[in-house]
Amino acid sequence: MPPEAIDVLSDASDVYAPPAAQVVEPPTVAAAMEFHVVGATKFFVLYGLTFGLYQVYWFYKQWTQYRRCHRASMVPVLRAIFPVFFTHSLVDKVDARLRRNGSRSDWNSGTLATAFVILQLSSTIMSRLAGDAFGAMDVATLFCNVIIAVILWRIQLAINLAC
């Protein structure tokens, strides 16, 4: 073997050593989003198929994503089970995010939150007053649930815009 080949081999690094590459975790999109984004079809199909119970999951996902993004100490399950106490807070946070982004927010967050709370309480009271037979109270409850779905969708549109 010529002497030049021996010098090249002796200067080379260990061929059996693992490569020395720096491993960096890629940033995730979900970690950067402050709220849970949902499309119209998914929202209305899940809301309809669960007869309105999807709102509990929807509120849970919104608060879980907010807690994860801000590392806040809160209990999303309680906020999802009792949304009438926390809806105003959620829409205020969405409105603040829209303003931070510089997005044009032409929605009245307080009115939507108040309408949700009133309709949610009215729906609950009417369903308790309804008798065994299908009657006017049941129709009114269904009507309230449809309006609640539209209100929550309007809030979701603002969330989608914010994120």
Tell me what you see in this structure:
This protein is an all-alpha fold and 163 residues long. It contains eight helices and no strands. The protein has helices spanning 3-11, 29-32, 40-49, 54-70, 76-81, 87-101, 109-129, 136-162. The longest helix has 27 residues, at 136-162. The termini are far apart. The mean pLDDT is 86.
What is shown here, in short?
With 163 residues, the protein is mainly alpha-helical.
Q: What structural category arises from helix and sheet content?
A: mainly alpha
Main β-sheet description? none
Distance between the termini: 66 Å
How many H/I helical runs? 8
The unreliable regions are none
> Number of DSSP strands?
0
Query: Oligomeric form of this entry?
Result: single chain
| Alpha carbon gyration radius | 27 Å
Quote the average pLDDT: 86
What's the helix-strand series? HHHHHHHH
Shape: elongated
Helix content: 55-70%
Strand content: under 5%
Detail the topology: elements first, then pairings:
Layout: H1 3-11, H2 29-32, H3 40-49, H4 54-70, H5 76-81, H6 87-101, H7 109-129, H8 136-162
List keywords for this structure.
single chain; about 160 residues; mainly alpha
